[in-house]
Amino acid sequence: MPSAPSSNARLDIILLAAGTGQRFSPEASGVPKQFQKLQQKSIISHCLDQFLSWPECGKIILVLPPDMANDLPPAIKDALAAYTGRVAIIAGGVSRAESALNGLIELDRAEEKSRYVAIHDAARPRLSHRLLDALKSALDDGAEGVIPVLPVSDTIRQKTSDNPMAGSRVVDRNSLMRVQTPQAFQTGRILAAHQKLANAENKASFTDDAMIAEADGAKITLITGDEALKKITYAEDLTAMRQEMSQMETRTGSGYDVHKFSDEKTGPIMICGIAIPHPKGLLAHSDGDVGLHALCDAIFGALGTGDIGHFFPPSEARWKKAASDQFLKFASDSVKEAGGRIIHLDVTLICERPKIGPYREQMKDRLAEVTGLASSRISVKATTSEGLGFTGRQEGIAAMAQATLSLPATE
Ligand code: MG
Fold first, then answer.
1. Is the four-CA dihedral 299, 301, 302, 304 of positive or negative sign?
2. d(CA 14, CA 107)
3. Could you tell me the distance, in angstroms and rounded to a whole number, from the CA of residue 258 to the centre of ligand 1?
């Protein structure tokens, strides 16, 4: 295991949520956009949860509108209660630059601070750990400031007179980039740049922190941004993001497994997590549960992540005689981690003996217990192979499985 990063090599976070959202007409509730709900939680919670679950996250400073920071409205107080002790709340200023500077000053006061800071607009809730890793890695490589950018795909026209109907010209989009946040910096460098700008008359024209760092001579490194990290500016942006995030697709996967009966071992044998008496035991590195192994492979198949041998290699001593229900638990947790759910599991056991019928309900209950599914979403079937082949000769037992998953739609 790599050792945990030392605290000063972490990335502190300033989360800017002090904007009043002039272009976002609040819904009937009058709730500012950063506290609007996206799926089951507020936009700001999406950001905070992503930062807090990232292993290299340092301190988090949340910058709110001054009236709100000093006297949290009850609904917002409730939304932020889960973060008490982990997130410092401070008041923003009249401009974005002033809010960021307030955050940097607050960090500078802290006894223990990180070498790096990322400044992020709370209006971009779909933040990935991959992007945070890339920002941090650029800073580790010596970048003074690093920002995520994306190409421009629309044709862009520039107004050539006050009346756009009267005159405009096409701008070469290949020379343009869209800039996102978080933007990450060496903390001392961005603090100094903001302090120098604090009294500048044109500070309102600085729309992001990289501009401010650059005005102070810092070199900005570019990394590839993330299309999902869209900014919510207008109410329609939030509606579109809600629709995007609720789009799921159905995927199926199949699994197959065989284990051989042993002349040296006696039963019981494990099938679908249930111990069943049998004169012969099974040859296997783990407990040899063909039902569970086939189900795991079906789930991994639908996820597209590999097979059971990839996650639990028989070459590793720790899986010797392992109870296979932990493999199924892992597979089922992987579905949750991917933001999906299991719709249905179906397994067919192929053997002449033991008879499966008397254990079918127990097996369904056990599979339901391990996966957290209702047993109505689980099917256990059995067949013989009419005395044909290796299963017919009772040399081994086989299982086939199908898993049906609902997963977030991807490209
Ligand atoms: Mg197996």
1. positive
2. 9
3. 6
Determine the distance separating the centroid of ligand 1 and the alpha carbon of 218, expressed in angstroms: 57
Cβ–Cβ < 8 Å for 270, 258: no
Report yes or no on 224 lying in a domain.
yes
Residues 229 and 260 grouped into a single domain: no
Residue 108: how many CA atoms within 13 Å on its side-chain side? 15
Query: Mean pLDDT across the chain, nearest whole number?
Result: 90
Query: Has this prediction a pTM greater than 0.85?
Result: no
pLDDT of residue 39: 77
Q: What is the pLDDT of residue 6?
A: 46
Task: Report pLDDT digits (tens) over 285-305.
Answer: 899 999 999 999 999 999 999
Task: Kindly write down the DSSP assignment for every residue of 159-222, as one continuous string.
Answer: ESSSSTTT-EEEE-GGG-EEE-S-EEEEHHHHHHHHHHHTT-TTGGG--SHHHHHHHTTPPEEE
- For the residues 34-50, what does the mean pLDDT come to? 87
Q: Is the residue at 3 inside a domain? A: no
338 and 211 in a single domain? The answer is no
Rounded-to-integer distance, Cα 18 and Cα 30, Å: 15
Among candidate residues 189, 358, 187, 188, the one with its CA nearest the CA of residue 277: 358
Full domain range(s) for residue 197? 11-246
Q: What is the DSSP letter of 123?
A: T
235 Cα–ligand 1 center, Å: 52
Q: How far is the CA of 336 from the centre of ligand 1 (A)?
A: 24
Cα(267) to centroid(ligand 1), Å:
17
Residue 4 belongs to some domain of the structure: no
How close is the Cα of 289 to the center of ligand 1, in Å? 6
Question: pLDDT for 136-183, tens place per residue?
Answer: 999 999 999 999 999 999 999 988 888 767 788 999 999 999 999 999
Domain boundary among 246, 269, 292: 246
Cβ-in-10-Å burial (0-12, 13-18, 19+) of 23 comes to exposed
Ligand 1 centroid to 301 CA: how many Å?
Answer: 15
Q: How confident is the model at residue 18 (pLDDT cuts 50, 70, 90)?
A: confident
**Which pLDDT belongs to residue 117?**
97
User: What CATH number should be reported for the domain holding residue 38?
Assistant: 3.90.550.10
Residue 261 lies in a domain: yes
Distance 387 CA to ligand 1 centre (A): 22
**What pLDDT does 167 receive?**
85
235, 259: one domain: no
Residues 277, 399: one domain?
A: yes
